[in-house]
Design a protein that fits this description.
There is one protein chain. The protein is an all-alpha fold and 90 residues long. The protein is built from four helices and no strands.
């Protein structure tokens, strides 16, 4: 049984497969995390339940200017809200 992917897996001496999995969880600017060998968001990418991580990822896709229109933006915003409220489980 493998252990959970953590921020430690970003270290330069980490196993290459585990490093790749850690980079896939990155919610910030991945090249910086890779270069420094640690999470630049104080480990936020590796903490929290899966639904909260998914909500943060979706929220980053939504235009933050407030001028987004269309059903697809509304759906993304609503899904993020539902994930945060625990109405959708991953």
């Amino acid at each position: 049984m493998s252990r959970r992917i953590t921020e430690r897996d970003l270290r330069h001496e980490a196993d290459s497969v585990r490093f790749g999995d850690a980079m896939a969880r990155c919610e910030g600017f991945a090249p910086w995390c890779s270069e420094y060998g640690r999470c630049q968001k104080e480990g936020a990418c590796f903490s929290g339940r899966a639904n909260l991580i998914a909500a943060r990822m979706i929220e980053r896709m939504v235009d933050r200017s407030g001028h987004s229109v269309g059903a697809h933006w509304a759906y993304l915003k609503r899904v993020a809200e539902m994930l945060r409220e625990g109405r959708v489980h991953l």
